[in-house]
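**Entry details**
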Amino acid sequence: MIRQIVLDTETTGMNRKGSICKNHKIIEIGAVELIDRKLTGNNFHFYLNPNREVDSEAFKIHGISDSFLKEKPSFKQISNLFLKYIRNSDLIIHNADFDFSFIQHEFNFLNIKIKIGKNFLNLIDTLVIARKLFPGKKNSLDALCSRYKVTNTNRKLHSAIVDAKLLAKVYLLMTSNQEKINFDLQENKYQQKNMLKKNSFLKNNFCYHTPSTEKEKLDHNSYLKEMKEKSGQCLWIDFFKN
């Protein structure tokens, strides 16, 4: 079983490297669970009282006000639940340096050290993956949602739990490409044709237990074409094409 946690946070502001630390805090944690690449619905979501004001620029991004947070729990109050939730899992974050630095800062304040391999298995940055897949292009979460046709109409403002759910869908699409097989299709063209002649029954009489509708066939062909465009080849198309 592979357990992965897709996570996002909202904060009171930015703790920029190289500048005086303003001790900005996490005000929302949103996380969703993947088991064997399937969403389970076992989500983790808390708004948190940072015991300080939210910067006006940060408020414009997420719309979370000081008055809304006044009666919420502190990070300390949910810290054990949070550690238990992420334990023995991969953490998947978009721009991991930002969110993870805040998480470390919160735990450091409680004299708790969190480390890869101790509290969780691995830290996966989807921004790094996106930049390798789409060099020179915009790779914000909004840009990736648009690129992968993931509906994000509910994202009027940033929200940790909404963004975690969107990122989970984007991550699954980004990492679902057909893996390359180490042989050239052109070099094996003769063998493929030979195989089709010997197995003409397979090509001409292949059927399903339940016959496909015309729409299902069109959707299937569209999916295969999209797979070939993303990965460079699709053996199913090349093997069965006329």
Observations:
- The beta strands are 3-11, 26-35, 38-39, 44-47, 90-93, 122-125.
- The chain has two domains: 3-174, 189-240.
- The two ends are 40 Å apart (CA to CA).
- Residues 3-174 form a domain with the Nucleotidyltransferase; domain 5 fold (CATH 3.30.420.10).
